[in-house]
Amino acid sequence: MASSAHSRGSVRTERQVPPARGNGGGNPPARSRSSSAKRSLRVSSDDDKNSGRVRVAVRVRPKTTEENDLDFTDCVELQPELRRLKLKKNNWSSESYRFDEVFTESASQRRVYEAVAKPVVESVLDGYNGTVMAYGQTGTGKTYTVGRLGKDDPSERGIMVRALEDIFANISPGSDIMAISYLQLYLETIQDLLAPEKTNIPVVEDPKTGEVSLPGSAIVQIKDLNQFLELLQVGEANRHAANTKLNTESSRSHAVLVVHINRSLEGKKENDASSLANVTNSELSSHHLPHLLKSKLLIVDLAGSERIDKSGIEGHMIEETKFINLSLTSLGKCINALAENSPYIPTRESKLTRLLRDSFGGTARTSLIVTVGPSARYYSETASTIMFGQRAMKVVNAVKLKEEVDYESLCRKLEYHVDYLTSETDRQQKLRENEKEQLEKKLKEKEAFLVETEKKISVKCEHLEKERNHLVLETQSLLKALNIQKSEKDKLSQEVGHLEISLKQAKQQELENLNYQKVLAETTQMYEKKIAQLIKQQEDESSRCADLEEQLSGMKNYPSGNKKSVQMQEKEIDELKGEILKLNEDAASTIQSLRARNNELSLEKELLNGELKTLKDKLLYEERKRRCLEDEIIILKNALNDDNAEYESKRPYKGDITTKSTLSLGGPANIPKSNRSRETISGQKDTISKIFEEVGLSNILALLKSEDLDVQIHAVKVVANLAAEDVNQERIVAEGGLDTLLLLLESSEDANIHRVTAGAIANLAMNSSNQGLIMGKGGARVLANIASKTEDPQTLRMIAGAIANLCGNEKLHVTLKKDGGLKALLGMVQCGHSDVIAQVARGFANFAKCESRDIILGHRKGRSLLIEDGVLNWMATSSATFSASTRRHIELAFCHLAQNEDNTLEIIRSGGIKELIRISRESSREDTRNLAMKALDSNPAFSTEIHAT
Ligand SMILES: Nc1ncnc2c1ncn2[C@@H]1O[C@H](COP(=O)(O)OP(=O)(O)OP(=O)(O)O)[C@@H](O)[C@H]1O
């Protein structure tokens, strides 16, 4: 249980602290100042309060019962407000003494503590040594004032208990240490009251510091007040036991309670690891070392001072009293010497003075309470006590703050610091290792990435090299194509030249014809004029003849005398008549020949006009074709330029793939070709075939999706041309070309795209295996939709051609009708363009023919699907107005419809019998005429109708 505060290694440094506070202390260490605020005692206002002067209070004990009974007069009169005590020697003589504090009989323990001891306790807490000592005659209340435990009544607690209470309230349990020793000095022997077996404890003085210690005495660390009370009780019991042994109730020993307080100035920071971590070497220099405040509080209950002669003691007690008096006397001497500033202080004369060396004339803050009894009986003791107190008041201590380097704390701090640095080093090391691992990992990843990238680059290079070669080849082929185009252009230019010459010639011829016609007209006019003259002449002659006949008849009625002259006249008349007749005949013959010639000239004129018209049409067509070719050449040049520009950036299909503008749509949709045109188209086909071979169908089809409209148009043209060839048709569809074309047709807003795409689809629709696919993918619907939106005859011609091709597949008829294909065909007639109408008529002929065949084979029944869409009415009423070839298609379609008896009613209603009759008689085709006749003959309803009308 015992621990030794002195076992700790420490170096104590002393510094005199200028008194700055009410209790005379220097700068206090960091601690609660709350207690300081309570220092409201009068003593604080004294001038000496800041000095190290021993402070002395006097307390008068209440009268005992005996003293009251014996009615002793008081020798003490107190003037508390003046802090004065009047000591009355007798009724007429008295002395007045001023003390630092004067306590009457009724002064409470608490007030006595706060005035006498508390400032010292606070000073001790601040790091100064302190002493509170009670001095007085036996039985005047020293033990009552100092050592009262107050177990039953805390208000009775004496200075010791209250001091410990205050100390507990102010120290930090974690960092501060408080321990006590409790001793008694008896017969110049120091005995440990906490360990009574320890006797004869020496008083050792440090020659350097003057620090007094009692080696061997128990120093018990106190944790709480209860523990202290228990120890105090133990000490009291031991002291009481010693007294009992000596057969005395009175305290014949000086009791000394030593309270050791060690306070760490940095106690609060010690547990803060982070602050320890920040300690640097420079901070460990001397003025940064952790300091420890070590202070000591001595609470001394002196044995009673009394005069041997008066107390009546004898024997051993005399001896005892002598010792007591010796010690008290030497204390008094020391105090006298100190009071008088004597150079020699007889400290060594007794153990008490040695023990109290620091309390009087030392560095401690000392407070003395002198206790007196009121009774005059003890006047001299009281006077002696008062004088002791008065002298003690003159003693001034050099109060010093004693700090020690707290090596234990420092050591702990350094250990923390070392721990922190070690763990920090480990942590840093670990971090570095992790970092190194991460870096190595990253390095490996980078290396792998580098290798991978290099591989990719080499593959890419190879690929680019291939692409470059491919592009070179493509460029070469495009250049070739361009050259071919150029030569084509030259040829076309020549052709145009020829045509222009032909045109000139035709114009010349036309001019000549015109002149001829003019001459003819003039001649005709002349002849007509002449005829008119002759007629007039004839009429004149006739009139003359009539006149003559009239004259003649008149003469016949004349008398016979004139008979001779009449005969003569009749002869003359006959001659004239003959002449007139001859003239009439001549005139009639001339008129007839003139009329014949006139007719011949008219026929000739008609022929010439027809020829001229044909020439004009041809010229117009060639002119249009020439313009188209020129456009194509310009586009090809641009495309070639684009390709050359793209070559360096390695974009293989950025450039346009061009082809001729004339679509080879095959079948009846084709424009008639001259021999030269056929050669040109053949050359174009070759070029397209080359492009097809070099670029590849998939790449060409991919260009259909190009964002460049020109590229799209030319790609569609190429596909359309390829689709004109039987061999390509299925392949284009198989590679998704049909889908793309349909999508393009549906989504594009561009009229050119509509035209060429419809042409491409028309060509694909020539192939019977493609027809089903086109229908299946909604092709008819798309075509019908575009047809409803456009008025461009070329586009309509392509669409009509495509649908016409689909009409030739009887399996698709129902779908075709459902998807609006038939209505679309009929609707396209509105454009009035002969080429379009020809395609429409072809479509209906195809449809009717296949339908008729289906019915004959028994695959279908019922009236024609064409009837439902109003086609029959159109055919029945319009065929005569179209060209011969268109008419033939319509006639054929009509005749096929007439074969189906289910259509009879509608044919009759539409007036179709008349048409059938006409066809049977006038159709240019024999088979059509036969079909018409067959229908008329075989269908009794027709015969009935014919007879009825
Ligand atoms: N101020 C006081 N109020 C009431 N009773 C007191 C007072 N002072 C002393 N007494 C009483 O007087 C008696 C003697 O007191 P105490 O034992 O404290 O005197 P003492 O000075 O210590 O004597 P000794 O020196 O012989 O030990 C006790 O019974 C104590 O209770």
Protein model, in words:
It comes from Musa acuminata subsp. malaccensis. The structure is a single chain. The protein has 949 residues and is an alpha+beta fold. Among the domains are: 5-275 and 305-405, Kinesin (3-Layer(aba) Sandwich), CATH 3.40.850; 463-626, Helix Hairpins (Orthogonal Bundle), CATH 1.10.287. The chain contains 33 helices and 16 strands. The protein is rod-shaped, with a radius of gyration of 76 Å. The protein starts with 10 loop residues before the first strand and ends with a helix. Adenosine-5'-triphosphate (ATP) binds next to helix 4.
Could you write a compact summary of the structure shown?
This protein has 949 residues and is of the alpha+beta class.
Which helices and strands appear, and what pairs or packs with what?
Layout: E1 11-16, H1 34-37, E2 55-60, H2 65-69, E3 76-79, E4 84-88, E5 94-98, E6 101-103, H3 109-125, E7 130-136, H4 142-147, H5 159-170, E8 177-186, E9 189-192, E10 204-205, E11 212-213, E12 220-221, H6 225-245, E13 254-264, H7 267-270, H8 273-277, E14 291-301, H9 308-311, H10 316-339, H11 351-355, E15 365-372, H12 379-392, E16 400-405, H13 407-556, H14 563-648, H15 675-695, H16 697-703, H17 709-723, H18 726-734, H19 737-747, H20 751-764, H21 768-776, H22 779-789, H23 793-807, H24 813-818, H25 821-828, H26 834-856, H27 865-868, H28 871-878, H29 884-899, H30 904-909, H31 912-922, H32 926-938, H33 940-948
Parallel strand pairs: 2-6, 2-15, 7-14, 7-15
Antiparallel strand pairs: 1-16, 3-4, 4-5, 8-9, 8-12, 8-13, 10-11, 13-14, 14-16
Helix pairs in contact: 3-5, 13-14, 13-15, 17-20, 19-20, 20-23, 22-23, 22-25, 23-25, 23-26, 25-26, 26-29, 29-32, 31-32
Residues 61-62, 136, 138-144, 250-251, 303-304, 371 line the site of adenosine-5'-triphosphate (ATP).
